[in-house]
Design brief:
The complex is a heterodimer of chains A (84) and B (601). Chain A is mainly alpha-helical and 84 residues long. Helix content of chain A is 76%, strand content 5%. In chain A, a hairpin with a 2-residue loop joins strand 1 (42-43) and strand 2. The longest helix of chain A is centred in the C-terminal third of the chain and has 31 residues, at 48-78.
Chain lengths: 84, 601
């Protein structure tokens, strides 16, 4: 396995990319651009697009940060660059 | 007990708690004053960061704006929370590894130039002052209501108190005081929301109540609200966007990247013990912020429905709101309306002389609504409600017990004071330390530095208070402008400093100047030069929102793009970034070898 700084940085950028994609999808995608279409679906009394803009994206943001922190921790250990 | 007495009592009590904790924490240890995160568990640190972050704009103003805007107001919710994701992934861990205390000192070292640092300080000062104008607007509203005086008087009194609080600001920076502030603030926000949600929907959890059915009726809360507001000629609550979809999109980006570029928030992640902790502590901060932010949309929608049903008895039941006896008789209006009338933020003008209050959108383009209003003898909307009063008035509108109303006043005061004081401290240290001491007058004594800092603070508060008398918008809107300025200047320079190791000082300086200049130009065109009334120059840019319909609050995104673009182009035509800086950047990218940042700068 390539454990150089370059390979680590590539792995980091990939991880950031995946998480930022989800981040953008739930807020800009579901919450704004696709909101009118999603509003045809209802979540209880909530139109779904409205729910993403006013509630859902925030819950997903929190989950994203903790998952990212965990995966980055694993990555640091795998490439042996973690803090001791 | 009388409401006024009770309010004084609760506000006084919360202050006694803050001061008590400050004294107790001080006696415990003075040494970890700076390394706030050092001995504090990450959860506590998260609460303290949340208290620092949630200002008058979040607490007092945001739900009111959402209440007015409906769905489009979601941009504040997504924008002001989504930035923490960027912070946790893109900035906090690397800045922590870099090991500098302030944004200007990061810029000075990474871009090997005091010039770049000076430009960063100027951007930071512009941003902070704009931010404080928004805070002063909120402070004015709180004190006006709290002391029963006019809004102007409220601002003058607020200025004096904020100044005293910041100068003798021993309370600031002590994590446990901020934890206490957070608890006061969040209880003040959520308790009335729980009451109101239960009253309206039978579900005590506001986040669920917002999506529930109305008590005793076969219709959801939001569906009824949609029906009421559209009947009165307002835009449909669950679908009205903030301007165009494009505007809402870039507005949200501007708030998100502005959040990630706010110096007084970033600084909290400099002081956590490890790089790994920098990543997760942003998550904890967001958890505590989200408790308020997910409650806010419920507060907004429910306050709107309650307001309409107070003014119009047919609103809640879905009856005919244009019926002759549906509108509220002015002489029988509830006490809270009288209380807010003294502040001048709620006004009634009997246009059709029938002694009743009619509240609807008389500027609607919907002819059916205008016809119905005309047929009912309505001669225009008679009530003006300042959006900034909604949260403070909310428990009064719902006729909640007096202690809840008093608690909300205490929360408003805590939110406004803590953030305003924090910003003033940021201004004073940026001016006296980063600018005067480091660049202009290296021989300045420590005493002189302190004095310069206090003078800067006094100037900032006078300017912000004066501009706050004629604010460029509602508190949250003004604060959004500050985020645009941070988005266009600070965020890009930090990003390029970490993710583009070839970025050089020429690029960084040119980028910051271009980004902030174009943003300020667009903002000042709408709001007046340095927000002074009457100096706007809309004609020059071809009318309001002339750039693809983008509002000045949302323009930070365009500023940031300009910043990135200019920086990139300039860096290609200027000498390359020195070798040792490139190595430094590579080192910053891995967590190993991070040092505890201790003591002073």
């Amino acid at each position: 396995m390539d454990t150089s700084g370059k390979a680590y940085w590539h792995a980091v950028l990939k991880l950031i990319g995946v998480h930022l994609f989800i981040w953008a999808l739930v807020s800009y995608g579901f919450g704004i651009v696709f909101a009118p279409a999603l509003n045809n679906i209802h979540l209880g009394g909530y139109p779904l697009g409205f729910w993403f803009a006013h509630q859902g994206s925030m819950y997903i943001f929190i989950a994203l940060i903790f998952v990212f922190a965990k995966l980055m921790g694993n990555l640091d250990k795998k490439f042996n660059v973690n803090e001791q | 007990m009388e409401l006024q007495t009770l309010t004084y009592l609760v506000v006084g009590l919360t202050f006694a708690i803050y001061i008590g904790i400050a004294v107790w924490a001080r006696a415990g240890s003075t040494s970890d004053f700076y390394v706030a995160g050092g001995g504090v568990p990450p959860v506590m640190n998260g609460m303290a960061t949340a208290a620092d972050w949630m200002s008058a704009a979040s607490f007092i103003s945001m739900a009111g704006l959402i209440s007015n805007m409906g769905y489009g107001g979601g941009l504040f919710l997504m924008g002001w929370t989504g930035g923490y994701v960027l912070m946790a992934m893109l900035l906090a861990p690397y800045l922590r590894k870099f090991g500098k205390f302030t944004v200007p000192s990061f810029v000075a070292e990474r871009f090997y130039s005091n010039g770049a640092s000076a430009v960063a300080v100027v951007c930071l000062l512009t941003m902070s002052i704009t931010y404080i104008i928004g805070q002063m607007t909120g402070v004015g509203v709180t004190f006006a209501r709290f002391l029963g005086v006019t809004n102007e008087m409220g601002i003058y009194i607020g200025m004096a108190i904020v100044f005293a609080y910041a100068v003798f600001g021993g309370m600031k920076g002590i994590t446990y005081t901020q934890v206490a502030q957070y608890i006061v603030l969040i209880s003040a926000y959520t308790i009335p929301a729980v009451f109101i949600s239960f009253q309206l929907t039978g579900n005590p959890i506001p986040q669920l109540g917002l999506g529930s059915g109305l008590s005793g009726q076969d219709i959801s809360m939001l569906a009824r609200l949609d029906q009421v507001v559209t009947d009165l000629g307002f835009g449909k609550y669950t679908t009205t966007t903030a301007g165009s979809t494009l505007n809402m999109f870039v507005y949200t980006i501007s708030l998100m990247i502005g959040t990630a570029g706010l110096p007084h928030v970033i600084i909290r992640f400099f002081t956590v013990p490890t790089v790994a902790a920098a990543r997760s502590s942003a998550g904890w901060a967001l958890v505590f912020i989200a408790i308020l932010y997910t409650t806010a949309p419920a507060v907004a929608a429910m306050a709107r429905l309650n307001l309409h049903s107070t003014i119009n008895s047919a609103a809640k039941s879905g009856g005919d709101m244009y019926a002759a006896d549906a509108s509220l008789v002015h002489a029988e209006r509830p006490d809270w309306m009288k209380r807010w009338e003294t502040t001048g933020l709620l006004k009634w003008q009997d246009k059709n002389n029938d002694g009743r209050i009619q509240y609807y959108n008389d500027k609607t383009k919907n002819q059916a609504v205008l016809d119905k209003a005309a047929a009912a003898g309505w001669a225009g909307s008679e009530l003006t409600v300042n959006a900034d009063i909604i949260v403070l008035a909310n428990p009064e509108i719902a006729l909640l017990p007096n202690w809840v109303i008093a608690l909300v006043a205490a929360g408003g005061v805590a939110a406004a004071l803590s953030t305003a004081a924090g910003l003033l401290l940021a201004i004073s240290s940026a001016f006296s330390h980063d600018l005067l001491k480091k660049i202009w007058m290296p021989n300045l004594s420590e005493k002189g530095e302190l004095r310069a800092g206090k003078i800067a603070m006094a100037c900032a508060i006078v300017v912000a208070g004066w501009l706050g008398l004629n604010p460029p918008g509602f508190a949250a809107g003004t604060v959004a402008l500050a985020f645009g300025i941070a988005a266009s200047s600070i965020f890009p320079v930090l990003m390029m400093g970490i993710f583009n190791k070839k970025m050089n000082k020429e690029g960084a300086i040119a980028g910051m100047i271009a980004g902030i200049s174009i943003t300020l130009f667009y903002v000042f065109a709408h709001k007046g030069i340095f927000f002074i009334k009457g100096t706007d120059f809309l004609g020059l840019i071809g009318g309001a929102n002339s750039f693809f319909g983008i509002t000045p609050e949302a323009f930070g995104t365009i500023g940031a793009l300009t910043n990135f673009l200019v920086a990139y182009v300039v860096s290609k035509f200027t000498p390359e970034c020195p070798e040792h800086i490139q190595h430094l950047v590579e080192d910053v990218r891995t967590p190993r070898g991070s040092k505890i940042i201790g003591g002073a700068h």
